Structures are given as C-alpha cells and as structure tokens.
Protein 1
Amino acid sequence: MLKLNVNGQDREIDGVADDTPLLWVLRDELKLVGTKFGCGIAQCGACTVHLNGQPIRSCQMPASAVAGQKITTVEGLAKGEQLTALQQAWIEHDVAQCGYCQAGQLMSATALLAKNPNPTEAQINEFMAGNICRCGTYVRIKKAIKAAAAAGKGKA
Amino acid sequence: MNADMNLDTLVRDLVAGFEGEKAVAVSRRGFLKVGAGAAGGLVLALSAGLPSDAQAQAGPGGPPPIPFVPGAYVRIATDGKITLISKNPEIGQGIKTAFGVILAEELDAKWSDVTIVQADVNPAVYGTQFAGGSMSIPMAWDSLRNAGAGARAMLVAAAAKQWGVPESELTTSDSTVIHAASGKKASYGSLATAAAALPPPDVKSLKLKARKDYKLIGKRFTGADNDKLVQGKPLFALDVQIPGMKYAILEKCPSIGGKAKSFNVDEIKKLPGVLDAFIVEGTTPSKNVMQTAVLPGVAIIGKNTWAVFSARQKLKVEWDHSTASKDSWTDYVKQAKALSTKVQGDAVVKATGDVDKALAGGKTVEAFYQFAFVSHAQLEPQNTVAWYKGDSIELWAPTQLPNQAIVGGVVGLAADKVKLNQMRVGGGFGRRLLNDFVCEAAYLSKAINGPVKLVWTREDDMRHDSYRVGGFMAYKAGLDAQGKLAAFNAHMIGFKDTASGGTSTASGISANEFPVTYVNDYRASQSLMPLSMPVGPWRAPGSNTMAWVQQSFLGEVAAAAKKDHVEFLLELFGRKAGKGQDGADQMPGMPRQAGLNPDRAIGVIKMAAEKAGWGKPLPKGHALGLAFYFSHQGHVAEIAEVSVDKDKKVTVHKMTVAADVGPVVNLSGAENQCQGCVVDAIGTMGLEITMENGAAQQTNFDKYPLPRMPVSPEVNVHFVQSDFSPTGLGEPAFPPAVPAICNAIYAATGHRIRTLPITKEGFKIA
Ligand code: FES
Ligand code: FES
C-alpha cells in the first residue's frame, strides 16, 4: 500500500510496483492526468510537480520515495474556481499553442515566483530552462511570468 | 518558392483515403432545423451546406461538396448561448479559436456568448478534416463566412417578420437584431425559435462583410481551450482512460524494416503487471504514404503504463535484419559531394535560356550546401486509445488527419464502423498526418479484444519518425556587368524512395522554384539517391530547407556583387513588379494555390527593413541578416539581429517578421505562430538525426537538444493587412528564419554557414 499526499489530500494506492515513477501513479492510478509525459529522462519538464514546494521531475522520482510528503500537481494550483495569478496571466497572454508542455511550465513558474517574487530576465531564463516547449512559446511564457510577478507586487 | 508541391503526395493520399466515403451531393432540402438544445431550449441549427468558392475552384476530382447537415457549424440556444463548431484538428496552430472568430464575425455574435467545440470526425458532413499545409484557413474561409452570414440572415428575417418591418431596416450587433427607427431590439436567443421555422436563404443573397467592417477578425483572442489547459484538464488522447483499459507498448526494430524473430517471452510474461506479450507480424505496408501500415515488432500488454515501460527494459528481441534499411548518412554525404561536381543533375526539372553559356563568361558565384535530417519531436509522444468491439471500433487519437477508412482497414472494418474521437493534439508539425500509431492501437485492441492505450516512448518516437529529409544543393550564379543576377543554376541532390523510385516527400526541386522567370538563363536539375528511411511532411515541407539554401546563396551573390541585400532582393523582385502572381504548384483535389506575387514580396521586404532598422546603427557587435520566402500562400520576410562571440556562440537578439497572409483572423494566435516558427527555426539549426544501418542515432532529448527559453529572442511580428484570400500561419514564418540568421552570422563574422546543423561548422546557438 502506497500512501501519498496529493494536492492536500491523503491518497492510498494499491498494487503498484515500488519503482513506479510518481508520474505514472498520478496519471494512471490517481487519474490526475494534467501532469504530462514527454521524455521519461528528466529532460523536458512536462512532468514537473512540486514536492514540498520544490519543482521535481516526476518521471524520475519513484512514488515510494515520496510517500507521505506534500505533492502538488497542476490540478492543485487553483483554489476552487479561483485561478492563480500565473494561470490568469497564461490565459491573458494566450501563451499556449498545443498546450502539452504548459502544465509543466506553470509548475516551474509557480515555484520560481514562490522563491523569487520579482525575478530578472536572466533568472527567469535560468529557472525555466528545464522546461521544453516544442511549439516555442517561450516569448509568451516570459511575458506571462513578468505580468504575474508585477500583479503580485506589494503582496506578501 | 513553390516547394509546397511536396505536399502533393499527402494530398493525393488524402483524396484517395476518402474514396468510397464520398458524400452525397449537396442537398437543398433545408438550411435550418429546430431541435432540443443541450440547455433544454431550442437550437437554431445551421450548416454551411454550400460548396465554397474554394471547393468550386477545385473542379472535378476535388473534395466532395459538403451536404446539408443541421447544426454542423452554428447552434443558437433560446437562452442566447451560441455554440460554434470547429471541424479541423487543433494541433497548436490555433484553428479552433480562428474558426470560431470567422463564424462569429459574420454571425455578428457577441464573443462572450460563444463556446467553440470540436466537431465529430465525419467526412460526410465536413468533407476533409485535417490540419496540414496551412490550409485550414484558406479552405474554410468561404464556407465558414457563409455559415455565419446565413445564420445571421435567418435571425434578421425572423425579426423582420415579428416586427413587420423590411429586413433592409434592420442591423445586427452583439448577438442582437436592431431596428433603429423604432428602437426595437431582440436577442438572437429570443429569435432562435422563429428563425428556425423560416426557409433558408440562398447563398447568393448573403452579403459578407467588408474588411473595414470587421469587429472580431483581426483582433486578439485567447485560445478556446486555454482555461482548461492551465488547470490540467484532460484534453489529450494520452489523458483518456476508459474502464477495463489495458496499456501497451510496441517495440519495433531500431533499423527500419526489420522483423521480430523471437524474444524472451517467458521472462517478460512473468514480470509484475504484465498481462501478455506477443510478436506482432504487422500489416502489409501500403504504397500510400499516409495510409501507414502496422510495422512488425513485439507488443507487451500490462495493467498500467509503468508495467509495460519497465518490462520493456528487460525485453530481448532477436531481430531479422534481412529486410531492414542499411541507410547511412555518412555514405550519403560522400555520394552527394561526388555528385555535386556536376553542374547538371540526372534530371533537368526546368531550363530556360542557355545557362551554361551565360555562366561561361563574367563573374560567377558557386556554393555547396548540406542540411541534415531532423525529427518532428512533437512533445506529446504518439499514443491512441482504441476499443475494438467486434463489429465496430472506437478510438481516441491525436491525429492531424482523422480517417476512418485507414483505421478500419487495419482491423477489417468498414469506415462507417469506426468511431474516431478527435483529441487535442500535443504538437503536430506534420508528423501526425501519418496514422501509424492510430493503426497500431487498433490492431492491438483487436489482438487482445478489448480497450487498450498504446503509448510510444520518446525513443519510439524518434526512432520511428517520418523525418524531415536531409539534402544537398550545388549552386552557381552569374552576375552581369552591373552586378545584377543574370544566370542561375541549381543542382539539387536529394532522395528517392527505394521501393517506389518516386521522389521522397519534400525532397527534390520544383519547376516553379524561385528565381525561375526572374532570370533568363536558368536551370534547376536534380540527382536523387535511393532512401529507405521514412520521411514525411515536416513544418513547411521542402520550403523549410529550400528557403535556407536559396536565400543564403542569394545573400552570397548579393555580397559578391557588393550590393546591399535589401536592394539586391528588391531589384530582383522589381523585375516583375506589377505583373501579378506567378504560377504555383497545384495540388490535385485541393483548392487552387496562389503563386508568388512580386509586389507582395516587395511589400514585406520593405516592411521588414523599415521595422528592423536596416541600415541604422546597431549595438556594438550586432549585425542584421535578411531573408524572404514564399510558401503556403504566405509572403514572409524576416530580419535577424545577431551577435557572435569569439567561441562562435551565436546569440539571436531579435527577429523582425513581416508577413502578408491576407487578413489575419486572430492577431494573438497569428503572432504566436510566428514567434513559435522563429524559435523552432533557431532550434532546428542546431539539430540533426543521423542514421547508420537504417537506425536513427539520436533517440531522446539528451542527444537531440530542442531549444530552451534562454535562446528564445525578442520576436516582433508585423502584418500587411491585405485583401488577398487569407492563408494559415502554422508554416510560412519558418522558412525565412534560418537563412535570415545565417545571413546575419555572415554579416557579423564573414563566415558563410553552408552546413546544417551549424555545429558542423563549429558554431553554436548560445
Ligand atoms: S517526462 Fe519527465 S522530464 Fe520529460
Ligand atoms: S505549447 Fe506545445 S509544447 Fe509547449
């Protein structure tokens, strides 16, 4: 029996092999399919989730290794209907093309702003470099991060 | 400039794929129908039901006319909610939003009343539903405008009847019919029931808006699915889960064409979570490139994705390589270099004047270019959920070319027994015009007689891509005494399919290729080497590489002539100014393609030069490079601003894109496509797939480093808003980007990049 805490909820999962990456437990067992599979070797960032607030590549993390720790997925960003400033900026700046990478991009961006609410261009580039967007929406991802950072100014 | 011909194969196959599915002729039995709406209200159900101009132009052999079907494009509920239906696959090109904007514009709908939904896959209703060749917009422009305007006319007629006033006194705005004289207003929702009872209008009576009257077209709209996307809602085929579904992988021979002889079946079947494992014989490959067969291999079926992925790591297959490809990139490079010494290739594609004589005297410029194979690498790996039910099959697939006949053929079912659910596609780039993965899922579902999700790994994806074909070009150009281009000789060294002997997809040179007809003495010829690696359409097929060799070389010629590059191109296009568009390669069964128009070329070159500050002082170490290319009916000029450090690291600081694609539908989406094309181009300049013994050597992103955020430049996009028929933007902004950057590298360093990837010349994108 595997016990996970995902998006604030305790979940119990039966019958998955110990070495199963968190990605596939989230997707196949918990039906949280917002977290995506792109490469399986920690190169693309499509599978990014938060582990105790830190971004990790869930394709490389055995689920059994994070039992009991706090996991947040893209489904857990919004508070009910209330989207985060980043999610809103993503919509306002029409960031997505195919949209497949965007859950991972949002998870990385969320972790970035949590750590550094007002990042420079260079800091954004560096932090986001682990997330590939094959459609090349980087111009807009950057814009949306800056907009959300500006919107969050003055807040705690 | 007319490398679009390389889509020929696609289109021929596409039309062939729909043989036997030809819809009945247009029925005029009605234009509207009333039915129960989702919200319990009445639905004004309207279909285009009319062959568009584009379809009419296609003539015999063209796509079948679209019959009347209620509710095909527009549905209006009595509560005022408007549902618009997008018929083509959404692959990231933004078509779902753009189609909605076109319909809503002519309907005069309030945008906030509108929801856009994906159409069922149903060629009898929608004709060909595919995403390719940037053709969604040009093919649907007329029929969608008519559908919107037809619905509007019905609503106006209903209000006129209700108020006893002539229709000519009524106007519409924001989903409302207005009678200014009396101050009466009625919402579309309140008129829907009455409108639905009226006879349909004649398409000839519909008055479409002039560009100046557009309220929506040309503005910015955020993507129709963005709200769902940012919340991680299930939209993709990979997200589909159905009760009782099993999971599958299919391991195929790394060398293309090899067959599985045996494998460690007992060991695999004992692994945790594995339910079955067996050899797949595959199906006979069709000659038709788009009707891909199931390749032989070994399938593992399991209870979840990880069960089959981890079992695969223990899989030991003995392959029969006797039928496998032996293709080697190293060998091709050697052969091509030898062939390049010939001024004329094996086959002359086009010749005018006497190019040999013209090149014998005066100043000449010569160069040899080489470009690599590359992979599509769309981020969502191939996958499909298939559920074979004996007498029918249902599939959920991320395809660019949904086709029931192709899939049905694999499992012995007629097209009408195949239900295909079009899912949002996690990147296309041309790869998913092939339905191989859809066919595989269908095959495996039948084999296990139940629902299954087939998931390719990234390694599967890169080993079994239909790559962008590599190639080579040997050029020689002659200048006259004034330094003007006088003679042009192009010898393309490309590929032909080993089995069929036909030119490989997107290889070879077109008889319409620029600068034919712009110089008197011209010759295009080609020599083709046999190739058995699969190649296929890749974003702006043919154009994306032809633009690079040609526009780089013209940059070389301009430099040799000591001419300013902008002036050089303007002089060249100016030779035919005012003469209208050229002939273009026409695709059988498709709407007429517009050709290169020198005036539009001149327009975008001037616009790019002005916006990029051509000729103005630049920051120290920066240099500009220009390129123009015409493809997919789009005229696009781009100017790159780069700097290169002492370690040959290239930084692209800025790209200025000037495009004339007719009226732009969604400005936000259009800019996004151009920005994406530029990033894609920057990345692709540094990438290659090499093959040895018929197997790709790069199989994941560690060896195939896609561009990341730090290399993404500032991209400034400018559109010429013209009244020419619009075209799509998924492709035409890609081709000029690479040569613009290479021309800028030359301006910065004096070094001419003649090999792609640029790493082969010691350069690197920083
Ligand atoms: S799938 Fe985890 S990084 Fe690519
Ligand atoms: S939007 Fe398609 S991969 Fe990022």
Protein 2
Amino acid sequence: MSITNILVAGTGGQGVMTAAEILALAALAHGYDVKKTEVAGMAQRGGVVTSHLRFGEKVLSPVIPAGEADVLLAFEAAEALRCCHELRPAGVILVNTLRLAPPVVSTGLFAYPDDPIASLRATGRTVYAFDAGAIARELGEIKLINTVMLGAISDHLPFPQDELKERIVARFRDRKPELAEANARAFDMGRAQARAAA
Amino acid sequence: MTTAVKEAEDRLLLSGNEAVARAAWEAGVKVATSYPGTPATEILEAIALYPNLHAQFSVNEKVAMEVAIGAAMSGVRALCSMKHVGMNVAADAFMTYTLTGTKGGLVIVVADDVGLSSSQNEQDSRYWGRFGHMPMLEPADSQEAYEMTKAAFEISERFATPVILRATTRVCHVKAVAVVGERVEGPKAEFVPEAARWVMVPGNARNRLPLMAARDVALKAFTEETGLNRIDEGSDRRVGFVTSGPVATTLREVFPDAPIFKLGFSCPLPIERLRAFAATVDTLVVAEETEPLIEMEMKAAGIAVRGKEILPRFGELLPHVVGPAVRPLLGIAEPPAPAAPAKLFPRPPTLCPACPHLAVYHTLARLRKKVVIAGDIGCYSLGAGHPWGALDTCVSMGASMGVALGMDKARDEDDRDKAVLAVIGDSTFLHMGMQGLLDITYTGGNVTVLLMDNGTTGMTGGQNHPANGRDLKGAPAPKVDFARLVTALGVAPERVHVVDPYQLPVLDRTLRQEIATPGPSVIITNRPCTLIEAFERHQPYHTDEDACTGCGKCIDIGCPAISVARRETAVRKNGREVELAFARIDTAVCTGCGMCVNVCASEAIVRDETAAKEDCRP
Ligand SMILES: Cc1ncc(C[n+]2csc(CCOP(=O)(O)OP(=O)(O)O)c2C)c(N)n1
Ligand code: SF4
C-alpha cells in the first residue's frame, strides 16, 4: 500500500499544527501507521510553519521526500507558493486566498506577489482556491477558518470525510454543543468549496 | 490533556518527548527535572501529568542535574532532561557523578537541535558519552524513544552509571505511533552514607578511577552483545551503512535494499561487530548527525569507511541530502532535481502583538546611537531583527551581564561616549544572570540592566519560574521579588526602577536618566507575556481613517497587528516631500494593549467595540 503525503502550510498562529494534528489523529483512527513532523523554528511568533503528515501501512522517514507531497493544504496564499514545489506534478493544492503581509512587506522592504493563485495554477497542478475567512465570517466567527480548511481537504483523503468531521465535532460535543454545530457547518462549507472552486 | 494515564490504550500517537515521559513513568521514576529548552521542553511537561512522581523545572540545568543526582543517590530512579546546550551548564555536576556511579537509575535525556531550528549553536552531544564514560542510547522514533528510555534505566542500574539518551529534534517533535505499557513502582528512597563513594575529595575520587575503568570494560563487552545494536538486513551489498538515531529511517526510505547497521547503544561502539559487518559489504558509509565521531573511531580501529567526505558535517541528514551524496557510489544517475522553490519575501519570526518587549525595543531603537546593547537569549533576542535592530550580542544564557561588563571594562576613558546596556529576560536572569549582575556590582561596572520581567519563560512556550508565583502545575508558589533581589545583589535602591513598558514615555525617560548616570542600575519592566493567564485581553483598536495623518509612528513600534494600509507622498508647506504611511490594525489579532495609542498624536487609534471574543477553534 502506498503512503499518503500531506503538506500543511501557513504562518505561526494560524493553526497549521493543530490542523495537521487533527488529520493525523483521524488517519490513526482509520488504522494507518502515521508520522507527523513540523518544519518550524520559533513558530508561535509569525514565521513560516509547515507540517509534514505521512500515513499508510508503514511510514519510515517522517519527512516527505522532495517533490512527493500529494496534497497541499495552505492557510495563506504566498505560503502555498513558497512550498508548492514540494508537491508531485499531479498534486492537489487547497489554498485559502488570504494574503498576510509580514512587517518586512508592509514596511516596503519586500513585495508580496501580485497573484499567487495564478502562479500556483501555472504550475499545472489542480488548485482549489477559496476565501476561508469569508466563509468563516459568513458563519459569524472568523476563528472557524481552521475547520473550513479541514473541510476543504476532506474529499482529498484516502479515507471517508465523515471520519475527519467526527474528529473535529467530537472535540466540542460535550463541552460546547453550539460550537459543535458551528464547526460541523464550517466543515461542510469548506468541503463544498474545495469541490466547487476547481 | 488531563492525567495522561487515562489514555493508556495500546496505540498512541506520541511525540518522541511524550514517549520518553511515558516510559519514564512506567519505569517507576520518582524524580524528574529539567530546565526548558527546545526541543526537550515537553518531556518534563508530559512527565508532570503522571501521578506518583515529583517533576520540576529547576532554575537551570545544573541545578536540575543535581536534584536528579540527589534522588538517584537515595536509590530511586531519576530523569533529567534538557536541550543540547543545557549539557554545558550541567556538565560540572555529571562529570563527577559519573565517577561516583549511581545507585538508583539515572537517565539524562539530551535533545540535540540538529538543523538549528531554535538554538544558538548546533553541538553534538554524543561527545559527552565519551567524555563522561557514560553509555549512550539513540532512538530513531517515538516507539524506540519509549523502549530505549526503559532500557536506559535497566542499564544504568546494572552498571551503576548515569546513562545518556540522545534524541534530536526529528525524534522529540515527530509524532508517531507507539505502543505503551503500565507503571511498575520502584524501591523507597533511602540514602546510605558511604563517604568513599559519595564524597569526591581527591583521596576518594582517585580510588574511583579504576572502578570507572573497569565499568568501561564491562560496557565494551555489553555493547558487543546487546540487541539495541542490530543489523537491518538488505540484499544489495554494494553499499552498507552504519548509523544511529532517526537517520536510520531516512536511509531505509532512500535505499530500501541496503544493509544497515543501526546503533541503538552507540557508546561505547561495538567495534568488533562493526568490523564483521564491514566485511559483508563492498563500501561502508557512516551516516551520522552531526560530527564524524563513529567515523573517526572506526577508522582508528582500522575499518575502512566513507563518511564526511561525502556527507555534510552539519544539519540534518534528510532524504534529499543523503540520496544525492550516496547514489554515485551505486552508479545510480541522479533523478532530475525537483523544481526550485519560488522566490518570495522572507517571513521571519517576530514578537507577538502586544508583547511587552515591543515597547523596550521601540525605545532602544530610538536610543540606538547612544548605546551598545549586550543581549541574551529568549523571545527578546528578536530585538536584533527588523524593524528595531536594537540588540548587538547574543551568546549564551545570562551572558548579557558578563559581556556588558567586559565591554565596559575594556574601554578607555576616551571611548565612553556610548552607554553599555544589558538586556535580559526574567527566566534567563534566574537561570544564569544573577551571578553576572553580582559581578557588575562587585566590580562597579558602568552597566544599565534592562530586566524584562514578563512573568514567564516565553521563548519555550510559557513555563512558570520562581519569580511568577506559580509552580510547574500552576499552583501558588513562593515568588521572588526582582527589585529586592537585585538590591540584595548590590544595586543601589535608588538605581532600581520598576516600569510599565506600555507607558512608552516613562520607559524612555527612565532609560535616558539611567544611562546618563554612572554605576550599575536595573530597570525592570513588568508587563506579562501574551501567552500567560496574567495577560489581559481587551477589545481591539482600529484606526480612524479620517483622523490618521500617515505619520507612521505606530508602525515603527513593530507590532505585527499594525500594517501599512497605503503609502502616499505629500509635499509639506516648506516644499519638502515626505513619505506618508497610513496604518491599519488587524482587529483579529490586536489585544487592545494600547501601546500604540501612546505614540499617535492625532488620536486616530480608537477601540473597536464590534469584534468577537470566544474561541471556537477545534
Ligand atoms: C543553556 C540553555 N538552556 C535553555 C535554553 C533555551 N532557552 C532559550 S531562551 C530561554 C528562556 C527565555 O525566557 P525569558 O528569559 O523569560 O525570556 P522570554 O522568552 O520570556 O522573553 C530558554 C529556556 C538555552 N538557549 N540555553
Ligand atoms: S511569546 Fe510572550 S515574550 Fe514571546 S514574543 Fe510573544 S508575547 Fe513576547
């Protein structure tokens, strides 16, 4: 059986590691061997964060070999561009269209790319681009972005999307049922996006 | 996580750090100590969740080591964990304890930051095994981290020696599946006085030397027979590997058919088994992170190996590094290089929105021409970066004190135009800064110290320490008063100031006054780190677009919540062109600290009462 390689990318504080952790737990519950590793320095303070998640019958190195990622889940547009070369030529990119300019950009030292989504498409890979923040705001809470993103990847995994959804919703069911409901909706809307936005 | 014991199903997704903690608990550890440091911090945090043991973060690694040694002398099992540089601090203690030998099992877990993701250097802790005559175990993943931690306690007691478990970032922070067991309680503590053993005065220590040499011999025999060292067979005998730690999984991934000698017990080396293995392959490659240690020892034993002439001496041996280095030996053409990454702006880490350090560096950046700033290690090391550029040195924990003093003492009367400043965090000050300050007061150093008390060890994720009134588990604990502490260390009471850093004008005034006055002084800033409970969140601010004049003063603070909305060039009445930068505040991350309100002359920064607060993230 082959290994599934998922790359999750974004910036410190966006929830990249949490998203990768939830995906890892869902893969574990499905019965796979799982390894997850972060390529991050001082992550909580705004730098680049990428998480490698690999699962399958037997995973050896936790690091995805160069150019062998199957799916990229990117929380920020330029960060998708920064690591899309790690994907297979036929890889799938799920990208939040959010543009986060760090201080070195906003103070004019560097430029943010004009259209990172177009550059992603130009690589020939399948790109699903959507505004996860807008979806979250539509649901009344910007912090649901994480769940929108997980919904988006749910149809691009080798196990049923319900297993992932259950992982997320179960985190709230007892503590805060209203949030379980909101997360379930965010998940479904993210999922719909990554099918419609092709 | 609540109590970790409840999760005892058999297949867990554990980081290497959590696996070590689990195994230590199962092995009956009674005392576990550490000082935070990436990538080792979570070992102690995870151990602290288990019952029937005492866990503590000590003020520094040396004290942590001594606490663990005391417990082990009393016959119980103890564990001491730290990052690689912590070993330098702790070495004075363990380099003698290895001579007395241990009673209860003592396992020192050291986490090497191979690849330097969050450290001041990249040193190879495997040398300590040789230097200290201590056996060393090297796990490759979480399951091995679990198993080897247990094995380490057995070996420690069997040979009466401290044992080092050496992990790397790629073990500590990788989550992988591990199967775990249950705790077995150890014996009760009982210290048995035995001066010849525990009192290392020269007369006694001398007698221990032959005993340590005999232990070395016994360990040499053990390494030749232990199952911790094993051959992972492969059918392609053209190139074989000797390796340890996580590199083993990389090699198996890249070279599925190569024979691999995997050293789990890597000090002392099983030289005779390695010699026999070498005879079974055409070319033997030693793949080790980071120094050529195994390589040198094998070459010294007359075994032909390839090593650092084809592999790098620093950084991680990842698939894309090992593959291209070794494939030529197999005559395999290099696969086409994957596409180069896109050229993009950098995204360096920066201080959090509302971080009290922002205030300090904003102020220091304005004094830049007047001061030399000896820095230290912590989140505040980021003050060296954009946009502040207000930190001149960073060496080792606490070094700001001594370095500043040295700079002061080195200069002549005629180059005293600049003031010497030392900038240090609260946790770092307690770790190793106090002694340096004592040196400053004792020798009358002309140094102004900025002690940034943010109530926590921010850099490593927010651990409590003796000056924030909380113990490891968050329960109330005695709290040291920094103002009284530094006074006791000899700083004149009128030269000690406690300042709220958010009050930028007050901070600026106090700093200017202190650097203009000769003699040691200490300015203590007292706002909490945004990670901890003591930090108060308020409704965020936003900018009133009509009121913002584009002066850019708030942007200069460097708070990541503030960015440039748009730029304009305007012509002043006097005909001069000025660049205007209009500000925008990201209300999703602004915590309403109000620091920027201080610098806005146009009252354009106002509260946003509409933003939501509850956290609904999974
Ligand atoms: C000998 C050693 N031990 C541990 C560390 C890891 N470390 C770096 S900075 C730091 C403490 C930072 O805390 P503090 O001084 O309070 O500053 P803050 O990050 O909160 O600004 C630690 C534990 C290290 N670099 N060296
Ligand atoms: S973690 Fe705390 S100390 Fe570190 S940058 Fe953030 S607020 Fe500042």
